[in-house]
Structures are given as structure tokens and as C-alpha cells.
């Protein structure tokens, strides 16, 4: 299902790309997003696990990009936050005796696969630097 993780992660990385030589605190980042710093740190942890950012503790600590924004695509960010986009399925099992009910989920699977291919293709063409240059 769709959540705000992609938007939050993109916000974090865009902010970091604006200050490539600085370590930004989770409190500073959270203030930009208007989000609890604990949730920001959770997303930063995922970014560290994917070798996109590095963090430093202490008074002048924080997080910064580990590689240039020109080398990170929005597709990379998408893959760190989702496996695929799914618009969901009905909670109840469709009637298998109905011509629509017996194939609805299968046809939704094909639709979602097509949507994901298009999303991946478009996001692969946009770097974090491209996106960041809008601000």
C-alpha cells in the first residue's frame, strides 16, 4: 500500500543535498518535514543501511550524503522505501463463480505490474540532484 515513506525519504535526501558538506541533525531535518525526530532517525537508519548517508555523533554530529546527489536516482529512493506500489485488494474474497470475481485479483496484479514498470522507468531518469535543483 502507499505510504508517506517515499516522500519523507525524498525530503530528507533533498535537504541533505542542499548542504552536501554539512552534517544535519535529525532535529533540524525533522523541523523541515514537521515530523518527530524519532521517525526521521528511523528513515536515516534505512538510508545508512543502504549506504546513501553517513552519520556522526556528538555536538557537531548529524547526517550527510555519502555520495553525490547526481549519483542517486529517485528510483534508488523508491526501491529503498517500497518493493512495489499496490493500490490494494478488497478484504473479502471475490465470488469464484462470477466471471469478474474469479479473475479480478489476477487482472489487478497485471495492472499493478504495469504501473510499477512505468513508475520505475520514470524515476530512473530523475536524479536527486535534478529534483533538488527545483528548490
From TrEMBL:
* Name by which UniProt lists this protein: Rrf2 family transcriptional regulator
Sorted alphabetically, which PROSITE patterns does this protein's record hold?
HTH_RRF2_2
GO cellular component terms, A-Z: cytosol
Top-level taxon of origin: Bacteria
InterPro entries, per database record: Tscrpt_reg_Rrf2, WH-like_DNA-bd_sf, WH_DNA-bd_sf
Provide an example Pfam family for this protein. Rrf2
> Which species is listed as the source?
Flavobacterium shii
Q: Which GO terms describe its molecular function?
A: DNA-binding transcription factor activity
SUPFAM superfamilies the UniProt entry points to: Winged helix' DNA-binding domain (SSF46785)
